[in-house]
Amino acid sequence: MIRPSILDLKGVTKQFGGLTAVDHIDLQVREGEFFTIVGPSGSGKTTLLRMLAGMESPTGGDILLKGERINDVPANKRPTCMVFQSLALFPHRTVGENIEFPLKIRGQAPAARRERCLQLMRQLRLPENYYGKSVTKCSGGERQRVALARALAYDPQILFFDEPLSAIDYKLRKTLEKELKDIHRETGKTFIYITHSLEEAMVMSDRIGVMRAGKLVQVGTPNEIYTTPKDKFVSEFMGEVNLFDVRLGEGGRLVSDTFKTSFSIGAMPAGFRQGYLVIRPEFMRFAGDGEEVENRLTGKLYNEYELGSRIQYQVRVAGHVFLLERLRQRPFRARLDEDVVVGWNAKDSILVAD
Ligand code: ATP
């Protein structure tokens, strides 16, 4: 079921003097969706989020919340709330005081405030005896949950997240990513999240929007973005890839001038003349090791990398690096510098434009 859209962006643009930080963005975010905006540093993510949250006005285009234009409605007049990387908690207050703050400024009576606060603490798996605990005595993960509980206390229609996990160490971050996705399920609220980490975006989001130089270059589910990247930039941004330039040759084959050979390809995109062939490391094979492949290249095994559940191999073909991955249970047995044949099947390759 496609849910109705909660937020509509029509040609949203932000210029700072001569610089276009956000460039004509069209987007619909659906109600209850976990939508992540991802892109490299300086691509305009923060500026876009600040406009959505009402901390900045667009210089062009419109932002509609449930059909109503909200371009110039300030942040505190919008039914939305932002969770910052710094979390912006009151440091000398207790967990309870922090979470109850929005309820207090709305004039709720102490007993009702406390009841709602404890309910939010249960939802966010904060022990009840933390109610009177100073936030300075909470761990990074607990503070994160306090900040989230306080944001939920505003009962916003949309929660915005400005890289809340980027300053947290790897292990805790991995736990919190999943927790945040669980909390999203439990609350059913619309979450709009920005990050420069593809991994984070993949784990949590229903859909991802990839930004580059102020433009939204692709919007799709994590699976769509991973398996059908729109161009070279998105394919490289979405993890390690084997990528080389190719052009259309005779008989619908792909010609690689780099490797002085041609490859078969499943479906040729209409109008394709030249571009890039992308093959994910997990689709690259060692030919002749019980695997039949349609396209082959001979090279030397250069290195092996332990990735935990998988092992990655680097093979060099005519000075070009190829990456292959295998599950740990099926390691490839060869010595470094040994000649190996690598390959892939036509259906496992992706063709992208520049
Ligand atoms: P990061 O991941 O590093 O935070 P970002 O993708 O969030 O980057 P923005 O912070 O939105 O990118 O910046 C986009 C562009 O707009 C950058 O070139 C930045 O220098 C510029 N910019 C952002 N805010 C302002 C401002 N207040 N005045 C002038 N230029 C700005």
UniProtKB/TrEMBL annotation:
Gene Ontology MF terms in the entry: ATP binding; ATP hydrolysis activity; transmembrane transporter activity
GO biological process, one term: quaternary ammonium group transport
Alphabetical UniProt keywords: ATP-binding, Nucleotide-binding, Transport
Positions of the ABC transporter domain: 7-238
Secretion signal span: none
The UniProt record lists the keyword Metal-binding: no
A single cellular component GO annotation: ATP-binding cassette (ABC) transporter complex
Pfam families: ABC_tran, TOBE_2
InterPro entries per record: AAA+_ATPase, ABC_SmlMolc_Importer, ABC_transporter-like_ATP-bd, ABC_transporter-like_CS, Mo/tungstate-bd_C_term_dom, P-loop_NTPase, Transp-assoc_OB_typ2
SMART domains named in the record: AAA
Name this polypeptide is given: Fe3+/spermidine/putrescine ABC transporter ATP-binding protein
Species in which this protein is naturally found: Hypericibacter terrae
